[in-house]
Write a structure and sequence with these properties.
By secondary structure, the chain is α+β, with helices and mostly antiparallel strands. It folds into four domains: 1-56 and 262-405, no CATH class; 63-242, no CATH class; 459-533 and 715-859, no CATH class; 545-708, no CATH class. Strand 16 (560-574) and strand 17 (580-589) form a beta hairpin. The chain crosses the membrane at residues 269-295, 322-344, 364-386, 414-432, 444-467, 500-522, 729-757, 778-802, 822-842.
Length: 859
Amino acid sequence: MSILKTSLRNVLAHKGRMALSAIAVVLSVAFVCGTLVFSDTMNTTFDRLFATTAADVTVSPGDQTSGQDQQSAEKDAPTLPAADLKRVASAQGVQAVTGDVTTIQATVADSDDNNLGPTSGAPTIVTNWDTGEHKSSKITSGHAPRGPTESMLDADTAKKHKVRLGDTVRVIAPPGSFTTTIVGITTFQTTNPGALLLYVDTPTAQTRLFGTTGVYSQIMATAAPGLSNETVKKNVATALGTGYKIQTKAESTAENKDDVSGFLNVMKYAMLGFAAIAFLVGIFLIFNTFSMLVGQRIREIGLQRALGASRKQINRSVLTEALLLGITGSALGVGAGVALAVGLMKLMGSTGMHLDTTDLTVAWTTPVAGLVLGTLVTILAAYVPARRAGKVSPMAALREAGTPKEGSAGRVRAAVGLVLTAAGATLLYLATRTDTASDGVKPLAGGVVLTLISMIIIGPLLARFVVRALSAGVLRVFGPVGRMAERNALRNPRRTGATASALMVGLALVASMTVVGSSMVASATSELDKSVGADFIVLSDAGQAILPEAAEAMKNTPGLAHVTEYKEIDATLTYPNGKTEKDTAFAAATPSYTEDLRVPVVAGELKDAYAPDAMSVDEDTATAYGLKLGDRIKADFADGATATLTLAAITSSDMTIDRGAKYVAISTVSTYVAAKDMPRNELMFGTAKEGQEAAAYARLKKDLKPYPQYQVRDQTDYKQALKDQVGSLLSLINGLLALAIIVAVLGVVNTLALSVVERTREIGLVRAIGMSRRQLRRMIRLESVVIALFGAILGLGLGMAWGTSAQQLLALEGLKVLDIPWTTIGTVFAGSALVGLLAALVPAWRAGRMNILNAIATD
């Protein structure tokens, strides 16, 4: 109990200084717990949604592996005839049956041709209203559709776009467009996954969405009381025979969960990764706090040793303080994590996915994980200071400094740091020398870890040189005050190194991501300039295929010299050596594609691949299967006959756009695949007539305005879209990394605050001999600035090394241009000085308020 009382007394005596360390624990634990609670809540929400909407037994077409397959389909989704509905209804044990007519290949637009669909990646769903829909939605205004000109819209979309009863919307579906009047508003019974949901009656859904009557996308059966879903499933399978996909409610729910689990898991583990970074940075803060607190209590610890306290007791006392700090911070972090999860749910709501807080799920493992992890990390960070405290001798009570001297520690640190630096640099270099990107991942990861550890180890040694260099350009212009700030920063290089290392971690990651992102944009821009000859590109960012009427509108646009169609055709290829390549896809295009994309070839001419019954392969495929010009390749088209094609060209694999593509003419494919089975265009290119670029661009945008699901871009637009996509990703990553930087800033504040207390007598003396309060505050601010800049130099240098190595590795996948954004790097460096300045405001203010006589009298 005496150790606990002593530890508790010390924590309370330094509660202000402990608070900043506790904040680091709180933030880190909050991020972990918030991520877990948010992830569990998302799973609960979708589980309830899928369980509510799934039928006891669901029948789907046999070649439809998942409901999500329709999202990227290039042709009409498979359907079930009305006869199947009757056969399912007649199966033993089926109490009721409904036919579902749903597509996610449609677009819903308002009267001004604005797309009402979500921009978050969720689908636009147009479906029929039947009794089964009552499970997921209810009518909250108006009435159900009663004819071909009436429809209902979900409440969230109606609110977002200010759609009211009586308004008309246009549905752009594969068979054609049609206009409908909103006569009802529906509200989700469970949660809105962010989708647009438009209901029409069943006959309208069949004819307008699938172009024929008496068809269904799925058939839903309800099991009779007393019969299991498995039993009814077997009976339905007997009634239908083979060629169908039949699932029970449990199976359908599990499949739907799998469809979203990939996205949820990526988001979960990414956020946990950032939480781990925050924990790493927090370790430096806690380590510094306890190191300085132990240093300030040397005489106190010496007296305790003189009075009989053993090394183990002193060690346990410090670790108990860390335990109290860890438990308190972790407990607060758990609560903050729940609040963070609620905030994330509100944020998701702003994107269209409205999550209900009644689904908030806090599993018992979440607070336990937060408490255990936060406490262990805190104890781990305090272990070395506790071990040093245990080594304090009783004689320390009789002198000013009693910290055990470790004469060889600096030499050992230097040796270990240099070895790890060399090993890490070697791995980073080896990562750039691999033949494939996958082979370089492990060396790159190892190099990143080793160089990070090495910088942490030799940071105190580098501080002596880097801080002096920085001081020459930053501090010495301030005269004696600047020189004193330099000496203060160098007084304890280990502390300066640890403080700077916390900032280094966050900035290294920011710099590396910025280099990679900037290189991605530069590489894509360079490839576009080099390879793309077309003036305009038309495609759907949501992955929707281009409808025939939109394609015709583009072809009829005045001012275009030519229009190129591009689509993918699934096939199985059998090569002359007898080997088969399954699940491959042809890049089928019109011959003008050779003008729109400059594809380098290693053998033959690409235009020859667009001759009848001809094709091309890339050089990697040619090498793998021993192919040469003139070889005959058998192609079994997924929806057509078998063709024998002549290899007319071999393209280079050293390209980014269409890397690995196998080219064939659309006219060749149409010989073997029926028109009804031909997929729609994935994208289209347009080239303007000489001197008519601006007019053709404006007219093309006008002609395609009735099809808002497609984007018309010239090369400038396309480059900007790439920049925006990468910029959005970097903003998200840097926003998450800001957590680590915030913790690092707290570390600087804590170090300065404790340093001011440590130097109380010294501050009193310099004030007594004439230093003004203003000069004192400036000295502390300059010390903070130089520490922050030291951390920025380490972090930005390390990050650029990581980013450069990653770019060299990704060059094997086409990321060939290294672009270091010096403006951004310089801005971050200057921002680090500002961070240091802001971090010093409170410690400098407190130092300036010290009473001179009380400070001199401090023991």
